[in-house]
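Contributing new complexes? Match this layout with molybdenum atom.
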Amino acid sequence: MIETRQTWCRNCSAACAMAVDVLDGRLLAARPDRASASPYGAYLCPKGLAAVEHHNGAENRLMTSLCRAADGTLAPIGTAPAVAAIGDRLAAIVARHGPRAIAFYHGTGAYRSVLGGLMERAFQAALGTPNFFSSMTIDQSAKWVTMARMGVMASGRHAMRDADLIVLAGGNPLVSHQGAPFALVESGAPARGFEALKARGGRVVLIDPRRSETARFADLLIQPLPGHDAEIFAAIAHCLLRDATFKADFVARHGEGLEELRAALAPFTPQMAAARADIAAGDIETVARWLGEARRPLVGSGTGPSMAAHSNLADHCIELVNVLAGGYRRAGEVIRNPGTLRSRPALEMALAPTRSFEQPPFCVSAPVGPLMGELPTALLPREITADHPDRIRALIVFGGDPLMALGDPALAEPAFAKLDLLVSLDSRLNETGRRADYVIAASQPFERHDLSLPADTLYPAPFAQYAAPLVAAPEGVIDDWHFFWAVAARMGQGLTFKSWSYGQVWQEIAGGLPLSLETPPDPVALCRYLAKDSRVAFDDLVAHPGGLSPPEEVHRVAPAPPGWAGRLALCPDDVARELAALAAEAADSARDDAWPMRLTCRRILHALNGAFRHSHEARRRHPVNPAWCNPEDMAALGIGEGARVTIESPAGSITAIARSEARLRRGVVSMTHLFGPLVAGADVIADGGANVGGLVSLSAPVEPINSMPLLSGIPVRLRALR
Ligand SMILES: Nc1nc2c(c(=O)[nH]1)N[C@H]1C(S)=C(S)[C@@H](COP(=O)(O)OP(=O)(O)OC[C@H]3O[C@@H](n4cnc5c(=O)[nH]c(N)nc54)[C@H](O)[C@@H]3O)O[C@H]1N2
Ligand SMILES: Nc1nc2c(c(=O)[nH]1)N[C@H]1C(S)=C(S)[C@@H](COP(=O)(O)OP(=O)(O)OC[C@H]3O[C@@H](n4cnc5c(=O)[nH]c(N)nc54)[C@H](O)[C@@H]3O)O[C@H]1N2
Ligand code: SF4
Ligand SMILES: [Mo]
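Output block (do not edit by hand):
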């Protein structure tokens, strides 16, 4: 008999509630769970709807682990011998070179593996290696740089449901479902969030070279040349200071360096920024005026500005505008969702900048320390090849495809080949896996025990879910957490399981659950442990698979403790220097005749980076990742619809299929990443697309601090291939 089970979609941090039909240990169909009290209501995006297909083996799901055989091919291996061999090789590497020789890369797939992610951190802490890399530092790393340079407002931002103005640069939540804490909007059912805002009379400003799907909610759409968000937001801040329309009381209470900021922003007039970004100066004035009028604005960005030129400075300027406009909750204001499984009080106080990247442990290839406890992923290849006794010799890739994500395969691929041991823990064989010594076949979410921790404070209202497996995992796969525990146990390394979240230092978290070296932990006990401080009892969550909200209580932002001295650094010296350098750039330096166009990032609704790309719908709709161009640019370049084009950047060249899109402003080509093989084959269509990473340089120009390369706004030229 078909049984309908309640759970949630594990694909992204929206965690949409899901009803799944199960028959004889097989998943039949998924649909939005109308019986759940999820704060997003009944909603699933196409990736959620395709979750069952993905689970049931589309995309060549790995049913067994693989090991590099003597002849160089990948051959099946049982999980137990693979774990034993990996444990022994890691132990030998640590014995010879010390724990720093071991590194972790935590990719997008790892973020949806709650127990796996925590066990990975427990293992890293037990080993004592600082080498933790993730997709976050090759994504919106700029946001962590800003937190480290400016500090953080502990009261948090306004909820979208309280906001009256949203200014969003380079994010497309209608497709990406990327909401708070970055794009600041609601991840699940994003259109409903915007509709509610508009119904309340709220306004939306969108800054994007492309008239994106989200633009249908925009009261003002600004379509700049990519890579000029720093100037645009510096100019908005300039106007707020010039007109004294910024929230002076808030800034005086929580910020420092206002006079330095005023001086540094002086050159950034709306006219100057508008000329560089090729937009109307009046639009910058309008945004500044609306921000001055707004009571609860939200200013934020998606990946666009964080991947384009001057990404760190751009992010600092975006956050500055948010501070100046008062985009944070004040003491006494209601917190709509203080968290359920793990709630923390919010105080109206500034946490001073940590400048953590100026402190050890430093990278071996650059004098750069951690951001949020992680080292910058853009430096990972050099951390492997550095002529240094502490270079990385073993890399465990957990739910990621770093060779594709990094770009610059000419630099990254030989670097990875220098590793003594490369392990990929994944549910499918990706481009990094193809080059690994071991590929460990991981279980899938509907086979695991889980808690809705990643969404806990992101839900627009308090809510939590616990998931029991809907079906048993196939024989040959292993849970992510189990892999880390088993490898550690093989090495004789005892682990302590902890409840950790961003901003916490593992070693400083008191207590924890010490795990046996002999018997694997019970995943239910791990979930129960993680819910120890939950506002809804774990047993109640188990009894209500559709999820529960805690009893209604009003939580308000508390005032700062008396004498609190933390301040947001509005204009630290390095930011002032970067602003001065940017102001001094030749006005037309971005318009280089050799590279007249800019290639930008974009996402598709039916895939999540590399995952789901081979699902039926994704393949049907996106057999390749076209190079989308403005039709007038195509006509001017003599490129026909569907023609093969060569795209060259200073770093390399790729072949793609050109398609026209009037939504794009002129001078911009836009392509989705993580398509095609790492190194192109004979034909782009047979390859299933082109690897945009072939246009990326990890050498220059890269950002200070995090070495972030240009992944958007890449200077390129196009020509039709004959
Ligand atoms: N369906 C789907 N959802 C996803 C993903 C996916 O692959 N598919 N990936 C997930 C991940 S890992 C992430 S990080 C998030 C990302 O979430 P988003 O940041 O919302 O991602 P995008 O949809 O790529 O939106 C980026 C936008 O920035 C614009 N842009 C590009 N360059 C610039 C620039 O220089 N300045 C400005 N102002 N805009 C620019 C692009 O035109 C594009 O519209 O999405 C997540 N969600
Ligand atoms: N040129 C260019 N480059 C980019 C970007 C861009 O816009 N342009 N975007 C950047 C961004 S934002 C990101 S986040 C990175 C993405 O980079 P990565 O996160 O490194 O790449 P993904 O392809 O998302 O890798 C996710 C992997 O997780 C696996 N997986 C899924 N579920 C599970 C699971 O439950 N357990 C395990 N063990 N594995 C699982 C999937 O099969 C997949 O292979 O790429 C970055 N690179
Ligand atoms: S937005 Fe889509 S992918 Fe994300 S949790 Fe909801 S259904 Fe899943
Ligand atoms: Mo990302």
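Reviewers usually confirm one structural detail per submission. For this one: Residues 8 and 17 are 4 Å apart (CA to CA).
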